[in-house]
Design a protein that fits this description.
Blueprint: H1 2-21, E1 28-29, H2 31-38, H3 42-48, E2 58-59, E3 65-68, H4 69-87
Antiparallel strand pairs: 1-3, 2-3
Helix pairs in contact: 1-2
Length: about 90
């Protein structure tokens, strides 16, 4: 049962990643797609969302939130710039 559940989650993650790659910068993505864009788990996305420098959620409904792809990409770029400045140009993981 655990193996089947793991495969289901992996398939969902891969589908979210394919969808995310097809989107424009102004598109609002839901949680799974936002995590796929960042290359992180949904749990880690929720942790990052609590940080002050992370893009604000957009409330889509009473139980639905999303993020603008452009905001996520700008956040990634800001992290890259900060890491380049602090590490002397060495490549680091977000």
């Amino acid at each position: 049962m655990k193996l089947a559940n793991h495969q289901f989650n992996n398939d969902r993650r891969m589908a979210a990643l394919r969808t995310a790659r097809e989107l424009t910068n102004h598109t609002i993505v839901r949680t799974a797609e936002a995590a796929a864009i960042l290359g992180i788990t949904v749990k880690h996305l929720h942790t990052l969302a609590k940080e002050s420098d992370f893009p604000a959620k957009i409330k889509l409904g009473s139980h639905a939130v999303g993020w603008r792809v452009l905001d996520l990409e700008n956040w990634i770029d800001s992290k890259k710039e900060n890491q380049t400045l602090t590490t002397g140009g060495q490549k680091n993981v977000l």
